[in-house]
Amino acid sequence: MAGGVSSSSYYSSSIMETLFQRTLEDLIKGLRLQLIGESAFVSKAIEEIRREVKSTDPHTKSTALQKLSYLASLHFHDMSWAAFHVVEVMSSSRFSHKRIGYHAASLSFHDDTPVLLLITNQLRKDLASTNEFEVSLALECLSRISTPDLARDLTPEIFTLLSTTKIFVRKKAISVVLRVFAKYPDAVRVCFKRLVENLDNSDPQILAAVVGVFCELASQDPGSYLPLAPEFYRILVDSKNNWVLIKVLKIFAKLAPLEPRLAKRVVEPICDHMRRTGAKSLMFECIRTVVSSFSEYESAVKLAVVKIRELLVDDDPNLKYLGLQALSVIAPKHLWAVLENKEVVIKWLSDEDPNIKLECLRLVMAMVSESNVVEISRVLVTYSLKSDPGFCNEILGSILCTCSRNAYEIIVDFDWYVSLLGEMSRIPHCQKGDEIENQLIDMGMRVKDVRPELLQVARGLLIDPALLGNPFLHRILAAAAWVSGEYIEFSRNPFELMEALLQPRTSLLPLSVRAVYIHSAFKVLIFCLHSYILQSESMTSSFPDNLVLGVSELVLKRNMLEGSDLTTCEAPSAHCSEGFNPSNQSYEDLSIENGGDRTINHGQTSTPAFSENIFTYDSIINLINQVELALGPFTGSHDAEVFERTRHILCFIELIKGEITECLVQKGKTLESEEMKASKIIKLISDAFSEELGPVSVSAQQRVPIPEGLLLKENLDDLETICADFQVPASNLFSLGSPYYGEEVGVSPFGLQNKEESEPSNEATSLLTEHRKLHGLYYLAPEKNEIVGNDYPPANEPKLQVNPKNDTEDLVKLTVQSLATNKKPNHAKTRPVVVKLDEGDLVTITAKRPETKDDLVSGAVREVLVGSDTRTATSQRNPSDKSSSKRSKRKGKEKLNVDCSELKENLGDSEKLKHENPSSRKNKHSINGKERRHKSTGKIGEEGEENGQKGKQKSSHRHARHKASHRADAPLNVVSQTPVIPDFLL
Amino acid sequence: MIRAVMVMNTQGKPRLAKFYDSVPVDKQQELIRSVFGVLCSRAENVSNFVEADSIFGPDSRLVYKHYATLYFLAMLDLIQVLVETLDKCFKNVCELDLVFNYSKIHTILDEIFFGGQVLETSSTEVMKAVEEISKLESASNSITLSQVCFWLAGSIACVFR
Q1: In this structure, are residues A527 and A494 in contact, taking their beta carbons and an 8 Å threshold?
Q2: What is the pLDDT of residues A122-166, one digit of tens each?
Q3: Interatomic CA distance for residues A115 and A124, integer angstroms
Q4: Which residue did the predictor score with more confidence, A809 or A246?
Q5: For residues A377 and A368, what is the distance between their CA atoms, to the nearest angstrom?
Q6: What is the dihedral sign for C-alpha A277, A283, A285, A289?
Q7: Residue A713 in contact with partner chain B when CB distance is under 8 A
Q8: What is the mean pLDDT of chain A?
Q9: Are A133 and B46 inside 8 Å of each other by CB?
Q10: 3-state SS assignment for residue A830
Q11: What is the predicted ipTM?
């Protein structure tokens, strides 16, 4: 009702407006009644406010603004449109209006608010007000909205307030300094000394404020505040205020690692506090300080662990949680502390509090080592089955992360780990598909001894139709499909795998995964056909071959003979393994380094695996028909990958089908005599597929020589400016991809070849170096090219043998030689070889730290405290600061009254400090002047000196002298200058 | 640094929200919603800390408290100070007090937190300041204290880095 009246009375007198205006309380009550719905009510209210805020009556205007602030703050209504009205209300002379204005300003103004330019004078006026509450309003507002301009222009006022006698204002002035420094680093030169003086203040409120400011400053760049250590030490020992103590502890946690002598000094008082205090917050802060920054002090750590234990057994979940957190901080350096509390940690793994559970999990993972990883993972996986989905995935994630760390460092039994991954995949809540996928493939490539088991796991996953329905598993299934295609030679029953790959429920898979399935089916098909052909070949030649077989191959021989027997009974038999066949020499050659696998394979094939003959004519024809049938529908697929792969496989079948059937019709006849096109094709493709995929380093590109005739420089020259700061992404992915990498790896002169090959590689090296010289820009940063466990061949090396028609003769030579020098893997090793690639490279890429204002603040602080020549650096870095400081000085001069004369002098100093080539005398003079002035600053300063405390005052004076003498000599390097700590601490 | 202070009821309605970084209003709303989402998913009698990296960016932590029990850790202490002050100010503070005394609550808040720093940890000092400010204001504005009392059901949260 009131709203209605006020809207109708818009043009009437201001008294009427005031009388009938809805107050904030009315607004809130209306909102609570919600007669017309909240949003409708709010928009109606906003409409009213828009009218009222234009009123000439200050009361109406401020009430409208108050309502608007309320709606902006709690109903998230934009109020940037009212910025100008905010300024109007801020300038009201009545406190209650002013307050509303300031509140609205700190709520809604931000760096880009245009009217900010208008409030500088208002703020200056209020900062100088005699009413401390008005000053406080302005300070509060400044702490929230200060911009570089405001900070610069108001620095003189804040400087004055830093030593006001009104505690209420002074503490706020101290706090606001933080924001001012951040926005306008040059303010440090003006205000820092006064700020430091406040550390000596006996008033607890002042002390709390100033310690809070230093705590924040020190967290950004602790080094600059080392010279203040004596002050902080005094507070640490003397203060009775827990809040202040906590802040001081935080400061020391930052300072101690920088200066061992300081750490030695403060560790005892910290332990005292830890022993004595009854406040848990202070005790925890002591613990945290010790475990994070004093971990070398045995006795302190022991005490902290005792206290942590107290927290751990407390009933309060907060204390438990914090205790666990402290443990996880200390775990990397003092694992014993965790082990001591093992039972508690494991017990709370099943706590109801998710924080505590998570923290326990981290600690459990910290305890994992080579010896207990199997046991712990077993327990955790079992436990994850009982947990809620979120925590279950946390557990799985941390197992995956811990086990794969540093190329599976802690895994000895890879067969176990692979089957664990298989088991994890079947956990109902498992959402770690991507990670499991990566690890399955990664291990397949890195650890060849694990491949048979890997295939078994993959088989288990593929043949289970139930898994296809779970979208979280699709990535895992893709990996399983890839494994089954890639390592099919370890399979006991390829037909079964083919069936699994083509099962109808694969329609549930996304197309990208189906493409992998189809491609794997292709590999399996080729494998079967190839095995069949070999087998047929062997049938004709096996008898004579078998007769000359060595005694060592008795088992095989027996199988062969059986096979041959069966053959005569019109049931062709074979043992599919490549290792089996003596006439398989050409294939064998293709992957010499596969010898190790073969050995394993022998063992497997002689076990009952293939006691039945599987590669029969019928089975092959069935297989082909099955593939054709299943893939037929995909010829119309819209997905390029699926379509293309389907076409590949179907065209291939088309190509060979006629001949296969033909030749199979005349089964029993020799195949080798007929130079069949089909068998040749099959052999070639099989050769291509049997190509071993190794991990490819992210930096592989670096080793790729530029093909002849490719002119990179010409067109890309002007990219130099753009690419100058380009950095390689630090991803740890391994490309599964193109076999062509292999050739290039082969040519690489780094690390892979031995000395014998130096001749040809030298050539390549010199070419490369030359090229590098020319096109240095396009090379990635040089790497530490180490291959750990280098008895494993580089990726795809044998490719060259498969396809010997290479462009350059060099490549062939190199590769042959590098192959010759390869050693066979040593199977006596307990832990299989894990291929690592230039791991170091990935870690070393560190982000370039951008130059921030913090640096400027620290620079200024160093200058003030230590008197190093940082100033040159700062002013050089930021030439605009100079002019701005000049401006502020000018303004300061205009405004300053007698009280501020001191400031004027100070500003003058800072101005002088900026001169690049000061004469020593002049500077000494100015420094002396400063000192004199300091002595007369007031009681605080004098006391500090009279007490003979070698506190900040004195030290800073000493440094000031330092500065003067240094400057007389030569400008100093900033970096080499280390902050000096007064002898007191040393 | 404290990034934000929020008071909200059990339905997730904000009763007080102050952000010390500059955050646009729609983002504020989103943040408050996600904070409420986190808080109401947590059981009672669990610890009062939430790692809030996903909501407020890296290294931030949410400390919250359902107003009822007592804990003694620094941030929680602060929340305690805030509630104590509110309690003194409104003689047994209830949600309605927060609803109706927008301006006064901000006065209290501003005395305790200052630009993301903690300024005052003694509720007596805060009270002194608040009373004086109220006196100054009362020339034109009178604050009516609501007599309806029910216990503040909801939570107070501080986000800090």
Answers
A1: yes
A2: 999 999 988 888 898 899 899 888 889 999 999 999 999 998 888
A3: 15
A4: A246
A5: 9
A6: positive
A7: no
A8: 70
A9: no
A10: coil
A11: 0.75
Residue A216 and residue B1: Cβ atoms within 8 Å? yes
Q: Compute the distance between CA of residue A164 and CA of residue A174 in angstroms, rounded to an integer.
A: 11
Contacts for B147 with CB less than 8 Å, ≥ 6 apart: none
CA nearest to A318 within chain B: B47
- CA distances (Å), origin A362, targets A291, A394, A397, A398, B38: 17, 10, 11, 8, 21
Structural tokens at position B60: 């931030």
Lay out the sheet containing B14-19: strands in order across. B14-19, B2-9, B154-160, B61-66, B49-51
CB B36 within 8 A of CB B12: yes
Residues of chain A found within 8 Å of residue B137, distances taken between Cβ atoms: 95-96, 99
From the list A333, A332, A369, A365, the residue with the least C-alpha distance to A346 is A365
Instruction: Give the list of residues 6+ apart from residue A675 with CB closer than 8 angstroms, or none.
Output: none
Q: Which of A207-221, A893-907, B21-35 has the lowest mean pLDDT?
A: A893-907
Strand partners, A520: none
Q: Which residue has the tokens 């002019």?
A: A883
Six token digits for residue A15: 């008294």
| Shortest distance, CA B60 to any CA of chain A (angstroms) | 15
Read off the tokens for A763: 């050539």
Contact A289, A249 (CB under 8 A): yes
Q: Which residues of A touch B126 (CB under 8 A)?
A: none
Residues constituting chain A: 986
> Taking residues A260-266, what's their average pLDDT?
87
- C-alpha distance from residue A189 to each of A171, A426, A812, A925 (Å): 20, 64, 69, 18
Q: How many residues does chain B have?
A: 161
Beta-bridge partner residues of B114:
B117
* Angstrom distance (rounded) from CA A197 to CA B38: 44
The alpha helices in A845-919, defined as continuous H runs, are: 853-865, 870-877, 879-895, 901-913
Q: How far apart are CA B64 and CA B35, in angstroms?
A: 10
- Residue B8 is predicted with a pLDDT of 77
Q: How many A/B residue pairs have CB atoms within 8 Å?
A: 136
- Rounded CA gap, A299 and A297, in Å? 6
Pairwise CA distance, residues A246 & B121, whole Å = 13
State pLDDT tens for residues A712-730. Answer: 666 655 656 665 555 444 4
CA-only gyration radius of chain A, Å = 39
pLDDT value at A354 more than 50: yes
Coil, strand, or helix at residue B159?
Answer: strand
Paired tokens of A771: 């090229």
Asked which of A480-489, A503-512, B91-100 is least confident by mean pLDDT, the reply is B91-100
Decide if B144 and A99 are in contact by the 8 Å CB cutoff. no
Amino acid symbol at A396:
L
* A188's tokens: 């440090």
What is the tens place of the pLDDT at every residue in A648-660? Answer: 888 888 887 777 6
Q: Tell me whether strands B2-9 and B14-19 are parallel, antiparallel or unpaired.
A: antiparallel
Q: Select from B36, B156, B30, B161 the least CA-distant residue to B105.
A: B156
Contact, A538 vs A581, CB < 8 A?
yes
In Å, how far is B52's CA from the nearest CA of chain A? 12
Name which of A236, A191, A189 is nearest A213 in CA terms: A191
Question: And the tokens for A8?
Answer: 């109708």
The token duo for A891 is 């303004």
A612 touches chain B (CB under 8 A): no
Q: Is the CB of A96 less than 8 angstroms away from the CB of B42?
A: no
Compute CA distances B61 → A352, B15, B50, whole Å: 20, 21, 6
Q: Where are the alpha helices (H) located in A2-147, listed in sequence order?
A: 2-8, 14-20, 24-33, 38-52, 58-74, 83-90, 95-108, 116-127, 132-145
Q: Which of A142-151, A734-743, A882-891, A906-915 has the largest mean confidence? A: A142-151
